[in-house]
Amino acid sequence: MRRRRAFTLIELLVVIAIIAILASILMPVFAQAREAARRTSCTSNMRHLGIAMSLYASDYDGLYPAHTALVQLCQFDRAGFLVDDWFNTPLANWARAILVYAKDARIYTCPSNKGVVPGHTLTGPPVSYIMNGFAVGRNEDASPNPAGTCLLWDYRFQMNEARVDPAPTTQGWWQCFFWGWTAHEPRFNILFQDIHVKSVDEKKFAEDIWTLPPNNMFSY
Predict the structure, then answer these.
(1) Pick from 209, 69, 79, 83: nearest CA to 149
(2) 187 vs 31, residue with greater confidence
(3) pLDDT tens sequence across 34-79
(4) Do 81 and 164 meet the contact criterion of CB atoms below 8 Å apart?
(5) Who is most buried in 46, 90, 139, 200, counting CB within 10 A?
């Protein structure tokens, strides 16, 4: 009878080592591919929201949605003009205003989100996009450069509130920037007023939202 030869311990260890090496090489590739797919999904969500904004404006004399300015907050994780419980509140907010055009509240969230805003619990459909406060209630034709003016930007976490930021007031504005707090580090997805979405480096985002230099993507 012919004896069947078994693997030796050394051979098994070599095979395991090769598998581990291949896994260490392929896992980052898989992670990058997964994030690329999520970024694409986020881009699609933002475009749909941009179309909803445009449809809203076409029905309201060209104006973007109004947003209640009762709560001004400037904290590490929440800043700008906030309307809590956006889905159920009677207060005007951009997210609820365009829902009838967006059709589906699920497109209000980015698939790359890193959970919920720390210390908060979701009580309704989450939102992970923030509207540029300089566009609130203004005519969609007011910007001299729609292709370079932000309408929405993506945020790292999901939240209960609809938020606008920067949020201009007669006393100035409340602004925030969280270094590295984008869902797609190290870049932000930005929906511009001409309904195209572009990935913007966080350094450029930080400069524009904090200092509002000439030809920035927020103020006009």
Answers:
(1) 209
(2) 187
(3) 777 888 899 999 999 999 999 999 999 999 999 998 776 666 556 6
(4) yes
(5) 46
Give, for 154, the enclosing helix (H) or strand (E): strand 150-159
Task: Note whether 130 and 82 are within 8 A (CB).
Answer: no
CB–CB of 140/98 below 8 Å?
Answer: no
Instruction: Decide if pLDDT at 6 tops 70.
Output: no
Locate the domains of the chain by residue range.
9-211
Answer whether 84's CB lies under 8 Å from 161's CB: yes
Counting other chains too, the contacts that 98-103 makes at CB distance below 8 Å and 24 or more residues apart are 98/49, 98/52, 98/53, 98/55, 98/56, 98/65, 99/52, 101/51, 101/52, 101/53, 101/55, 101/56, 102/48, 102/49, 102/52
DSSP secondary structure, 163-203, as one string: EESSEEETTEEE----TT-STBTTEEEEEETTS-EEEEEHH
d(CA 87, CA 160): 8
- Angstrom distance (rounded) from CA 135 to CA 168: 10
Tell me the C-alpha distance between 188 and 156, whole Å: 9
Burial of 86 (0-12, 13-18, 19+ CB in 10 A): buried
Gap between the Cα atoms of 196 and 148, Å rounded: 10
| Residue 123 in tokens | 């009580």
Residue 170, pLDDT > 80, answer no
